[in-house]
Automatic annotation (TrEMBL):
PANTHER family linked: AP ENDONUCLEASE, DNA-(APURINIC OR APYRIMIDINIC SITE) ENDONUCLEASE
A GO term for molecular function: metal ion binding
Annotated site, Transition state stabilizer, chain positions: 134
Gene Ontology CC entries for this record: nucleus
Protein name in UniProt: exodeoxyribonuclease III
Cofactor: binding details: Probably binds two magnesium or manganese ions per subunit.
Source species: Daphnia pulex
Length: 271
């Protein structure tokens, strides 16, 4: 069984959700714990996975997606949406998303010291706990370079949670000689080649097709303007021509903004 934990940063667009689905499928994950989830259901993910989302009030909740080949026995979540458990029979998977930021330090401390132990006490063991803790229990976890000061101080509430529940850090247990967790840059090349670049290519191709259609509409619009202005039965009305030309430019900019979702260009750039 292959498992993963991903903070998806509240993604909600079909393109990005499709990238997430492609990534999970290409890596053949069976169980994926998600954090900062902004949806309660997702047809794109549900096409290949079972989706269990925690409907909390923060709009940045947790979810667990499970392969359709696995049978879910039961699932439960806390009212705030920060903890979600899926029991698959022999093992329970818990997705966790702790409060983040310095201003929520007290709330995070209460979360680790009270809420998480209480929640896990109702979960059938053995438990696989994954997620975004927004804290570290070891100085080496956030070292950018050897010999430097960690970017995040040790959270003593998390240390107490790990010790009190006798949690085992699987990464460190399997790699005792590694001094710290891997940096995000380790898999950047793989991510770019296997997931991001194909997704961008699909989006670019879709945009180019729509852009080509738009250009045809623009040409037809200008042609209609010229036919109207140069009608031999009427005299050339320069103010009217300028007004139509300005209207065509504004229409062009509105269409580009809608299609490409870019910041509108300066009208002078359209000359």
């Amino acid at each position: 069984m292959k498992v993963a934990s991903i903070n998806i940063a509240r993604i909600s667009t079909p393109e990005r959700l499709q990238l997430l689905l492609n990534y999970c499928v290409s890596n053949e994950f069976d169980v994926i714990c998600l954090q900062e989830v902004a949806f309660s259901s997702c047809p794109i993910l549900e096409s290949l996975f079972q989706v269990f989302a925690s409907p909390g009030p923060n709009k940045a909740d947790t979810a667990v997606i499970v392969s359709k080949t696995l049978k879910e026995q039961s699932h439960t979540c806390d009212p705030d949406g920060r903890l979600l458990c899926i029991n698959l029979g022999p093992v329970s998977f818990v997705s966790l998303y702790a409060p983040s930021g310095r201003i929520f330090r007290d709330e995070r401390s209460t979360f680790f010291r009270v809420i998480v132990p209480a929640f896990l006490s109702c979960v059938k063991e053995p438990i696989v706990l994954m997620g975004d803790f927004n804290a570290v229990d070891d100085r080496g976890d956030r070292l950018r370079k050897a010999g430097t000061t960690p970017s995040t101080p040790v959270d003593h509430a998390l240390v107490a949670l790990v010790g009190g529940l006798e949690l085992v850090d699987v990464w460190k247990a399997l790699r005792p000689r590694d001094s710290a967790l891997p940096l995000k840059s380790v898999n950047v090349v793989t991510w770019w080649d296997s997931v991001f670049k194909p997704g961008v290519k699909r989006i670019a191709q879709s945009y180019c097709r729509r852009r080509a259609s738009l250009v045809k509409e623009i040409c037809q619009f200008y042609q209609n303007c010229l036919v109207e202005i140069t009608d031999p039965t009427t005299e050339l009305d320069w103010p009217t021509f300028q007004a139509l030309r300005e209207e065509a430019r504004e229409w062009h900019l509105r269409a580009l903004t809608q299609v490409a979702q870019i910041y509108p260009l300066d009208i002078q750039e359209m000359d």
